[in-house]
Amino acid sequence: MRITPLDLRNHSFARRFAGYAPEEVDEFLRLVGEDYEGVLRELGQQAEQIAGLQVQVEHLSANEQVLQDTLTMAQKLSEDLKRTAVKEAEVLVGEAEVRGEKILEAAHRRAAALAGDIREMKLLRVRLAASVRNAFETHLRLLDGLAEEPPEELATEGKVAYLRRTTKEAATGEG
Fold first, then answer.
1. Which of 3, 79, 147, 165 has the maximum number of C-beta atoms within 10 A of its C-beta?
2. pLDDT digits over 13-72, tens only?
3. What span, in angstroms and rounded, lies between the C-alpha atoms of 66 and 77?
4. End-to-end alpha-carbon separation of the chain, Å?
């Protein structure tokens, strides 16, 4: 059984001859009761404070678990985003390489076509130069023929016969 502060104040001792002074014992019991009451009050306050702190600790522990779960989820999400970004980058690089290869292949085809065109133009230039040279030489022969004195037999026929003969010679390429 627990003793309360009221029990201490109301307790009375049996009286005997040559015992303690009753006023001092009563005063001491009153002081002890007040101190005991203060200690019990403080103990109750501390018990309430402990209960409040335990509730707070439980709440903080729950928050800590939520934060831990959130952090774990954020790390997983970050890793997933990083993997996705790496995959997307690889796809973009692959597509760029394919486009680059197509552009390079088209450039090679265009360069080959231009080289062929250049060869054809050089051949055409050579043919054109030869054709111009032939035409020039033909005209020179015509001029040389015109500059010559007509032979005696043609001189009697006149200029018309001479010109016909020269035109005929020019057409056959003789001269």
1. 165
2. 777 776 777 777 778 888 888 888 888 899 999 999 999 999 999 999 999 999 999 999
3. 16
4. 159
Contacts (Cβ under 8 Å, ≥6 apart) of 25: 13
Provide the 10 A C-beta neighbour count for residue 174. 9
Q: What is d(CA 66, CA 59) in angstroms, rounded to the nearest whole number?
A: 11
Domain that holds residue 61: 5-172
- When divided into structural domains, the chain yields a total of 1
Q: Cα angle vertex 15, ends 10, 16, to 5°? A: 155
Query: The pTM is what?
Result: 0.40
Chain-centroid distance of CA 142 in Å reads 78
Cα of 5 vs its chain's centroid, Å: 78
Count of Cβ atoms closer than 10 Å to residue 145 Cβ = 17
